[in-house]
Write a structure and sequence with these properties.
Number of helices: 5
Order of helices and strands: HEHEHHEHE
Helix content: 25-40%
Shape: elongated
Oligomer: single chain
Number of strands: 4
Strand order of the largest sheet: 1-2-3-4
Radius of gyration: 18 Å
Length: 148
């Protein structure tokens, strides 16, 4: 029996070496619980050619920050047009979106990066509820993970 330390090193060696190093009869996907982190900048306009296919072949989950300030650019108004196509593309590729709900927005405080004022916390609660309502209405409930 391998020690957990040895087992961890073996798993990392497989992940680092890539799917081509695995025997053909073994599924090259690491597992349904493993994923990749992806940075979505303010300039993001879509995935590059082949990017989703590459991620899909190795991972089943993609973690990214869903920036509050990208959705609520005008205080009190939500625009999901930046993230809707991202979630749609991921789901179509068989990748589960795992969105981290960012908690900073200039609408509520330019100085409070931790969102600890009453105004910011109330704004965040409203935003998180809007996210849940929006993606539930699109039929994504149970297909997308959200956390803060």
């Amino acid at each position: 029996m391998l020690s957990s330390h040895t087992g961890t090193r073996a798993l990392l060696a497989v992940v680092i070496s890539g799917a081509h190093a695995l025997p053909h009869q073994i599924n090259a996907t690491v597992g349904s619980g493993f994923g990749v982190n992806y940075h979505i900048s303010s300039e993001f306009s879509g995935f590059k050619h082949g990017e989703l296919e590459l991620m899909r072949d190795a991972f089943k989950v993609m973690r990214f920050d869903m920036k509050w300030e990208y959705i609520e650019t005008t205080c009190g108004h939500y625009n999901f047009s930046k993230f809707d196509p991202i979630l749609e593309a991921l789901l179509a590729a068989g990748i589960r979106p795992y969105a981290i709900l960012d908690y900073a927005n200039k609408c509520y405080s330019s100085e409070d990066k931790k969102c600890s004022t009453t105004k910011c916390v109330a704004g965040y609660q409203s935003w998180a509820a809007a996210v849940a309502k929006h993606y539930s209405a699109l039929g994504y409930a149970g297909r997308v993970s959200f956390t803060s």
